[in-house]
Amino acid sequence: MIILPQIPHLPGRTPRPDPAVFATLRGDPEAAFRAGIEAFERGYFWEAHECWEGVWASCPPASRSRHLMQGLIQLANAGLKRRMGKDRAAARILMLADAALARAGDETMGMARASLVHMRHRAGLEIAL
User: Fold this and answer.
1) What is the pLDDT along the chain (129 residues), one digit of tens a residue?
2) Radius of gyration of the chain (CA)
3) Which of 1, 61, 78, 95 is the most buried (most CB within 10 A)?
4) Contact (Cβ atoms closer than 8 angstroms) between residue 17 and residue 5
5) Could you give the 3-state DSSP secondary structure of residue 86?
6) Rounded CA gap, 64 and 127, in Å?
Protein backbone atom coordinates (compact mmCIF):
# COMPACT_ATOMS: atom_id res chain seq x y z
CA MET A 1 0.00 0.00 0.00
CA ILE A 2 1.20 3.47 -0.83
CA ILE A 3 -0.06 6.76 0.52
CA LEU A 4 -0.57 8.90 -2.55
CA PRO A 5 -1.08 12.66 -2.66
CA GLN A 6 -4.61 14.04 -3.05
CA ILE A 7 -4.16 14.57 -6.77
CA PRO A 8 -1.86 12.91 -9.33
CA HIS A 9 1.27 14.83 -10.25
CA LEU A 10 1.28 16.54 -13.64
CA PRO A 11 4.74 17.97 -14.36
CA GLY A 12 4.61 21.73 -14.72
CA ARG A 13 1.03 21.86 -13.44
CA THR A 14 0.86 20.39 -9.95
CA PRO A 15 3.33 20.20 -7.05
CA ARG A 16 5.77 17.31 -7.09
CA PRO A 17 4.95 14.68 -4.41
CA ASP A 18 7.07 14.47 -1.29
CA PRO A 19 9.99 12.09 -2.02
CA ALA A 20 9.34 10.42 1.34
CA VAL A 21 6.30 8.76 -0.25
CA PHE A 22 8.67 6.64 -2.34
CA ALA A 23 11.57 6.33 0.12
CA THR A 24 9.84 3.56 2.05
CA LEU A 25 9.76 1.45 -1.13
CA ARG A 26 13.48 1.56 -1.84
CA GLY A 27 15.10 -1.77 -1.22
CA ASP A 28 11.81 -3.67 -1.44
CA PRO A 29 11.15 -4.40 -5.13
CA GLU A 30 8.05 -6.46 -4.41
CA ALA A 31 6.41 -3.67 -2.39
CA ALA A 32 7.46 -1.10 -5.00
CA PHE A 33 6.00 -3.26 -7.79
CA ARG A 34 2.65 -3.58 -5.97
CA ALA A 35 2.63 0.14 -5.08
CA GLY A 36 3.20 0.98 -8.74
CA ILE A 37 0.27 -1.21 -9.79
CA GLU A 38 -1.93 0.47 -7.19
CA ALA A 39 -0.83 3.95 -8.27
CA PHE A 40 -1.40 3.15 -11.94
CA GLU A 41 -4.87 1.71 -11.30
CA ARG A 42 -5.81 4.87 -9.40
CA GLY A 43 -4.62 7.06 -12.30
CA TYR A 44 -1.37 8.19 -10.65
CA PHE A 45 0.86 7.58 -13.66
CA TRP A 46 3.84 9.71 -12.65
CA GLU A 47 3.81 8.11 -9.21
CA ALA A 48 3.59 4.60 -10.72
CA HIS A 49 6.69 5.35 -12.76
CA GLU A 50 8.51 6.50 -9.62
CA CYS A 51 7.57 3.26 -7.83
CA TRP A 52 8.70 1.08 -10.72
CA GLU A 53 11.99 2.80 -11.53
CA GLY A 54 13.86 1.00 -8.73
CA VAL A 55 12.26 -2.33 -9.61
CA TRP A 56 13.40 -1.93 -13.22
CA ALA A 57 16.93 -1.06 -12.07
CA SER A 58 17.08 -4.18 -9.88
CA CYS A 59 16.20 -6.55 -12.74
CA PRO A 60 19.04 -8.29 -14.58
CA PRO A 61 20.01 -6.53 -17.83
CA ALA A 62 18.13 -7.75 -20.93
CA SER A 63 15.96 -10.05 -18.79
CA ARG A 64 12.29 -10.65 -19.43
CA SER A 65 11.46 -9.06 -16.07
CA ARG A 66 13.43 -5.94 -17.03
CA HIS A 67 11.51 -5.73 -20.33
CA LEU A 68 8.25 -6.11 -18.43
CA MET A 69 9.17 -3.27 -16.08
CA GLN A 70 10.29 -1.11 -19.01
CA GLY A 71 6.92 -1.73 -20.67
CA LEU A 72 4.99 -0.88 -17.51
CA ILE A 73 6.98 2.32 -17.00
CA GLN A 74 6.27 3.28 -20.60
CA LEU A 75 2.55 2.57 -20.13
CA ALA A 76 2.57 4.92 -17.15
CA ASN A 77 4.41 7.55 -19.18
CA ALA A 78 1.94 7.19 -22.06
CA GLY A 79 -1.00 7.61 -19.67
CA LEU A 80 0.66 10.71 -18.24
CA LYS A 81 1.29 12.18 -21.71
CA ARG A 82 -2.33 11.54 -22.71
CA ARG A 83 -3.53 13.24 -19.55
CA MET A 84 -1.33 16.20 -20.38
CA GLY A 85 -2.87 16.41 -23.86
CA LYS A 86 0.28 15.20 -25.64
CA ASP A 87 -1.41 12.58 -27.79
CA ARG A 88 1.38 12.18 -30.36
CA ALA A 89 3.95 11.56 -27.63
CA ALA A 90 1.57 9.10 -25.95
CA ALA A 91 1.06 7.18 -29.19
CA ARG A 92 4.83 6.94 -29.75
CA ILE A 93 5.42 5.78 -26.18
CA LEU A 94 2.63 3.19 -26.42
CA MET A 95 4.46 1.64 -29.38
CA LEU A 96 7.62 1.44 -27.27
CA ALA A 97 5.62 -0.12 -24.43
CA ASP A 98 4.13 -2.69 -26.79
CA ALA A 99 7.61 -3.65 -28.00
CA ALA A 100 9.00 -3.97 -24.46
CA LEU A 101 6.02 -6.04 -23.33
CA ALA A 102 6.44 -8.29 -26.38
CA ARG A 103 10.11 -8.82 -25.41
CA ALA A 104 8.93 -9.73 -21.90
CA GLY A 105 7.01 -12.62 -23.43
CA ASP A 106 5.25 -14.62 -20.77
CA GLU A 107 6.97 -12.80 -17.88
CA THR A 108 4.28 -11.10 -15.82
CA MET A 109 5.78 -11.09 -12.30
CA GLY A 110 2.56 -12.63 -11.01
CA MET A 111 0.19 -10.35 -12.91
CA ALA A 112 -2.58 -11.86 -14.97
CA ARG A 113 -2.08 -11.25 -18.68
CA ALA A 114 -5.55 -9.65 -18.69
CA SER A 115 -4.25 -7.04 -16.23
CA LEU A 116 -1.51 -6.03 -18.67
CA VAL A 117 -4.05 -5.77 -21.48
CA HIS A 118 -6.27 -3.60 -19.25
CA MET A 119 -3.35 -1.34 -18.30
CA ARG A 120 -2.37 -0.92 -21.97
CA HIS A 121 -5.96 -0.05 -22.84
CA ARG A 122 -6.25 2.44 -19.96
CA ALA A 123 -3.02 4.23 -20.86
CA GLY A 124 -4.21 4.61 -24.44
CA LEU A 125 -7.58 6.01 -23.47
CA GLU A 126 -6.57 8.41 -20.69
CA ILE A 127 -8.37 11.71 -21.05
CA ALA A 128 -6.51 15.01 -21.08
CA LEU A 129 -7.19 17.34 -18.17
Assistant:
1) 788 999 999 999 999 998 888 888 988 999 999 999 999 999 999 999 999 999 999 999 999 999 999 999 999 999 999 999 999 999 999 999 999 999 998 888 888 888 888 898 888 888 765
2) 14
3) 78
4) yes
5) coil
6) 30
All structural domains of the chain, each given as residue ranges with its CATH number in brackets, are 20-125 (1.10.3450.10)
Other beta carbons within 10 angstroms of residue 106's beta carbon come to: 7
Could you tell me which of 71, 87, 81 has the C-alpha nearest to residue 120? 71
Q: What is the DSSP string of the chain?
A: -----SS---TTTSPPPPTHHHHTTTT-HHHHHHHHHHHHHTT-HHHHHHHHHHHHHHSPTT-HHHHHHHHHHHHHHHHHHHHTT-HHHHHHHHHHHHHHHHHHTT--TT--HHHHHHHHHHHHHPPP-
